[in-house]
Request: fold
Amino acid sequence: MGWDNTFSKRLAARDLTVGVIGLGYVGLPTALGFLDAGFSVRGVDVTQRVISALEAGQNPGDDPQHDDIIPSSQSDSWKVSTNSADLVPDCDVILVTVPTPVTEERLPDLKYVASAGAAVFDAVAKNSGTIVVLESTVYPGVTREIWSPLLEAAGLVEGEDVHLAYCPERFVPGDEEHGVRQVARVVGAPNKEVGEGLRDLYDTLTTGGVTYVGALEVAEAAKVVENVQRDLNIALVNELARIFPVLGIDVEEVLDAAATKWNFHRYRPGVGVGGHCIPVDPYYLIEKARAAGAPVELITSARAVNRAMPENVAKDMATILNGHELSISDSNILLLGWSYKAGIGDPRETPAEPLAVALGAMGATVQTFDPLVDDRLFPTDLATLVRAEDDISPFDIAILVTAHDEVIGMDWAKLSEKSNQPIIYDGRRVLNVEMLESLGWCVYLLGAPL
Amino acid sequence: MGWDNTFSKRLAARDLTVGVIGLGYVGLPTALGFLDAGFSVRGVDVTQRVISALEAGQNPGDDPQHDDIIPSSQSDSWKVSTNSADLVPDCDVILVTVPTPVTEERLPDLKYVASAGAAVFDAVAKNSGTIVVLESTVYPGVTREIWSPLLEAAGLVEGEDVHLAYCPERFVPGDEEHGVRQVARVVGAPNKEVGEGLRDLYDTLTTGGVTYVGALEVAEAAKVVENVQRDLNIALVNELARIFPVLGIDVEEVLDAAATKWNFHRYRPGVGVGGHCIPVDPYYLIEKARAAGAPVELITSARAVNRAMPENVAKDMATILNGHELSISDSNILLLGWSYKAGIGDPRETPAEPLAVALGAMGATVQTFDPLVDDRLFPTDLATLVRAEDDISPFDIAILVTAHDEVIGMDWAKLSEKSNQPIIYDGRRVLNVEMLESLGWCVYLLGAPL
Reply:
């Protein structure tokens, strides 16, 4: 596509082809959304399983919302492939939605951004004016740092053969009000016409409003800052959940009282922060700022507080069991829920994992009840996964880790029979204490005096 | 008053006398509010100047809202005195609204809470069932720790002769929407009937709603947590204001972009945090938590970030002046605004003060233009105070410290004539850059690349 003022006409006529690279929990609903909005869509994923499922008209992921809207067959308006080269030449706009995890050393791992970019630029035609948009979370500067050398290596000239842009995904897994069709978006692009064209394009995807914010780096920074702010506010309530019990006070009573103030932000303390964004994105900014010699003490401190929560909870377990004349070293501990948040099966960066590691290091045997978690991603070396309530083995203490409906609505009377003295620790502050106590449970609460 | 179920009847009939100890920016509007709500009011302040003004029907403070509503003379329903003993015996409920500053070592300074409490308890009659409410910001446990020994020393029995409660003030100086008649309140009291009675009493003062939250300590903690959260969120944007310029990015563009997200909290970076609450209250919690062995790294880190801002700005001034071939060591620096926030005259804990100290230590001469600041509280050893634009002396760089309307609306053309090369640093991000540049100003912005 030559980049000129025909873009808006072609947009209005839905005469544009949108490519999506990476068909995971962001890319797939995005591809289906643009298809529904009337555009031709090309989807690429390097995982054969994903493409095979889509070719068969089946849902490759775990979000049931997609079951009925995946096209049953390929057509001019819907094609999928594992090979970028097959489909990229069709596309006017290409959205790259690949994962950006952190390495074991908590440094940004940009290999998927690089490999997807290289594959795209190798397939983009010279003079096509293709727009390539990164949606993955990065730190300010990444889109250009990683992609400029790759597009040059492919013989392309930025601003002529290809235009770069950044439009961070803001999808909230498991939250139907904040899916790709609802969330507000921001677009950063060095070329204003490209930025405004993308704004209008994304406006057909979402009802939440789209803002062109100028430079690529501003949009990159905005995404990181959103998650850093969330991490910080959660870290504060987690730090308070460590302070107030020592003073004989339940942190939740305090936060409820403070929340009567008009400008208070109500966050909830918990076993820890998980998922693909909040526990990951801050490291991207920390790394970039450190390298530039800028101060990051506060952001680093927040990350440390949240990261310490599973270990803190493990220590609480030893204290509680000790108070019941039990030893953690030969205990059986039941984790209720393993996914990083309620209602979904995603275990990425779940605090359940470091919790299980800490408990295991103290000598405990760990079993997990979670009917939702993706069992392909469950670390069977750390814990036994139990899918049905009946299959739960006898235990010494239960820890509510993830507030799945299937956990909150368990048969608590029946569960209590699997323990000599049923003890539970509510790590999410969601349980009905009175009800549990009436069934004979001894209940402990995260953030309340033990 | 015997504490019984007649309280609600007497409340409904406005047959209660409310005492207010400390008639400052919280106590005076509270006293006037209860008077307006139909109660008899007794006001005590240890400062003779305050009482003399009130006796003459004059406003002792700087809030013009009070000018017309201060009673012109004393009566059965309105009496003021410097002496608690004169008025406390009249009162059914006594509200203590004295300052709780921090010492030079940033430890809580509770001497006013103690002296006001002692004076009240000495004057409370045995068997009176007087309710004594602390409104000053403290840390959890203070009301009982400080007052219980004092009331015992006065021969009173808590829960019989006297009831204790805590109801934090949440007044926002200069914000007409969040005055004592509008803000939501919380009440903590060990006696539920007292707590609910106070809830109903405060409900006549404010339209914002009043919640009885149970224990004294919960209400005490809530107030501190509100300000700690605010301090933390401001510290985050201040840290970001240090990071992004190093990366070539303007922090305000990033925050504007992030603020398009539905759950982002928009705070603004600045020269520093001032006032009687946010830069003070966190130390109360830090001290209490440290003493109890609880972790406070995050809260402490936030405080450090905000406290460092004036020093950071001073360093920026040296850099900027250097870039203009000027040296800070023999410069004249004009601070625009001194009060800790816009629209008020209160200089307590203003960041202007450590800024002036840092600039002075670098050899600069400092003058301040502020038509609002209370000149009795202005430290003339640190800077010259100028009240009228015409009296401003020639300067090398101006720093916008406080966004008073009188500052933003200055005659910028005229001001520019007082400098060879007019340079301004906007420490609050409130100035119209284009307008200033058109007048020949060289403009620098806090949080943007210099």
Notes: The first helix of chain B runs from residue 6 to 12. The two ends of chain B are 65 Å apart (CA to CA). Chain B is about 35% helix and 15% strand.
